[in-house]
Amino acid sequence: MQAIRDLNEETQIEVLTPDFWSGKNAQTAQKERIAKVVEMLPACYNHNIETVERLTGPVRRGAKYERSLGVLAYVKELNPSIATKSGLMLGHGETESEIIKTLKDLRSVGCDRLTLGQYMRPSLEHLSVQKYWTPEEFEELGKIARSLGFSHVRSGPLVRSSYHAGAS
Q1: Would residue 165 count as lying in a domain?
Q2: What is the DSSP string of 104-127?
Q3: CA–CA separation, 168 vs 161, rounded Å?
Q4: pLDDT tens digits, residue range 27-55?
């Protein structure tokens, strides 16, 4: 980020990070890594939760739902002025009520921005699509997200976590 700012200090940078959970003393190391990113003052800190709590294991091997929420909460703890963002890929068999619970969980840790997109199976080795959500369903989920207080919502079949990353 500093190298980019050295070239143009007006550049707004959105980062998309993993949960930084690895190695000895994983929790301490995770907090240090998140803090290092936050110190650089990104315009938006994005960490995708990807799916609902029930499906986290099969969809995100090695990831933990609560740990992802913790990443976003810790960013806000370190610097509440940094916008946080997360995203879900729908189509793994989640229900609308599970999606809404996930949106509420994200808002409970101060997540400001949201992307909702359709999961597309990248290869035969990946999980198969359980449902193709309609554009109308995405539109309705977007309205629900806005009503919960997300400041920026992008919701549609082709939306990805980087969708309109430049929107402030």
Answers
A1: no
A2: HHHHHTT--EEEEEE----STTSP
A3: 15
A4: 888 999 999 999 999 999 999 999 999 99
